[in-house]
Amino acid sequence: MNLSIQRTLAIFLKDVKDVTRNLFVTTTLLVPILLAIAYRNLGDITLEIHYTVINLTFSSVTAFVQCTLIAEEKEKNTLRTLMLSPATTSEILLGKSLLSLLITLITILLCIQITGYVPEHVGLFALGIIGSCLFYLALGTVLGLITKSVMEASVVVLPIMFLFGFGTMLETLASNNAYLKLLEYLPNLQLLRFAELLEQQKFTSLGLPLLVIGIWSVLSALLAVMVYRKQLNSR
Fold first, then answer.
1. How many H-runs (helices) and E-runs (strands) does the chain carry?
2. Which residues have a Cβ under 8 Å from the Cβ of 122 and sit 6 or more positions away?
């Protein structure tokens, strides 16, 4: 095990200890799970409903947990210590993202088990999920870096939860309004589009939604690194 992995794991293990003591963060995990249970009790579940639950997991778990973990570090002034440590930018950002990624994947697995969603092609489904997850991790990182406390972070992330969590409902609105056509390129709607093509076995058409999700992920990751380095240089 090289030094880089050791530092990354040390940051990850610290986050594990912190999140077990933070009931405010852990209770957010119940939001998509309770929604999945509610939808299951309704009976027939469409693909859109399955992905409403999945997208809500990304916004209320991935982005929210990532945002609050970093905001908590800032509030306690421990992020400054971490920035001044020998750990590199990539080690810190990766270490801070591992727990949110793990929690997200576990929550999604629980939710699709509850709703009974069985993807036709697990490998391609996983590719879409991981690609989307990278976007929400980077988004949560940016929001955590620009806020000063957990309370402020929890308020800032709320619009994100509604836009990306229930954004699948915007698809009808976008299709009926030429001015809102760009909404169709939101990563949550592209994930739904990807799932629809996957169910229809139109494999040759999967490239476009994956590309759009990838662009969102890369741009948000670059923004997260820029904001982090800006704050590092200001200290």
1. 13, 0
2. none
Highest average pLDDT, of 9-18, 106-115, 178-187, comes from 106-115
Written as one letter, the residue type at 51 is Y
Going by C-alpha positions, the residue among 190, 189, 196 that lies closest to residue 170 is 189
Q: How many CB atoms sit inside 10 A of residue 32's CB?
A: 26
d(CA 210, CA 173): 22
Q: What is the DSSP letter of 180?
A: G
Provide Rg for the chain, Cα atoms: 18
Determine how many CB atoms are found less than 10 A away from the CB of residue 76.
Answer: 13
Q: How far apart are CA 67 and CA 81, in angstroms?
A: 18
Q: At what angle do helices 47-57 and 158-165 cross, to 10 degrees?
A: 160
pTM above 0.85, yes or no: yes
Among 11-20, 144-153, 172-181, where is mean pLDDT lowest? Answer: 172-181
Residue type, 77: N
HSE-CB for 80 with a 13 A CA cutoff: 7
